Amino acid sequence: NAGVTQTPKFQVLKTGQSMTLQCAQDMNHNSMYWYRQDPGMGLRLIYYSASEGTTDKGEVPNGYNVSRLNKREFSLRLESAAPSQTSVYFCASSEALGLGTEAFFGQGTRLTVV
Amino acid sequence: GENVEQHPSTLSVQEGDSAVIKCTYSDSASNYFPWYKQELGKRPQLIIDIRSNVGEKKDQRIAVTLNKTAKHFSLHITETQPEDSAVYFCAANAGGTSYGKLTFGQGTILTVHP
Q: Searching chain A, which residue's CA lies closest to the CA of residue B97?
């Protein structure tokens, strides 16, 4: 099993460009999440999907959109990138919403917006 | 929403010493408290977790304690080794209907000197 796989690993964008970060998990998890990690600020939740067909805003959703394509895949889109979105992005999945269970993380995407 | 505070932000110890990291949370409905370790350039990985129905959990050199009344929990690492050097994050799940959502602390950079 690959676990949680993110693409790409690195990306440089110009201000105003758009891009989609892809995430897929093969653990049959119901819930998936997108976090961003900035120095000294821990991991902050951008959006999450409790189950296939549902998405909800997290702590820092502005400037982002998400799509839960099916149970395996959860993508994050930046429509018009800004330098403030320079960060490391992590996708994660867990077994079920409603239970306290381990979140498994992808390897991260390091995004730089210039 | 949930707020998690983590202290200290940096911790430096000699090999063989103990290390303690403390977190407080705000949502009294939270019932799941994981700890993640993140090595440089890697993804966060779960090292230990505790649920609200227990006060302490131990796994070899690592232990976590939980005080629900005071809303704080702590990570204890004994007999530290250089390979314990990493960033450690505490987290708490959101209460109510969003149990799967995790709110993370700001992280503690642990350095173990040989």
A: A98
> SS in 3 state form for chain B?
CCCEEEECCEEEEECCCCEEEEEEECCCCCCEEEEEEECCCCCCEEEEEEECCCCEEEECCEEEEEECCCCEEEEEECCCCHHHCEEEEEEEECCCCCCCCEEECCCEEEEEEC
> Which of A34, A37, A43, A56 should one mutate to test binding to chain B, selecting the residue with the greatest count of B CBs within 10 A?
A43
Is the pLDDT at A38 greater than 60? The verdict is yes
Question: At B90, which helix (H) or strand (E)?
Answer: strand B86-93
User: Any CB–CB contact under 8 A between B107 and chain A?
Assistant: yes
Q: What mean pLDDT value characterizes chain B?
A: 93
pLDDT digits (tens, 9 = 90+) for B50-63: 988 889 999 999 99
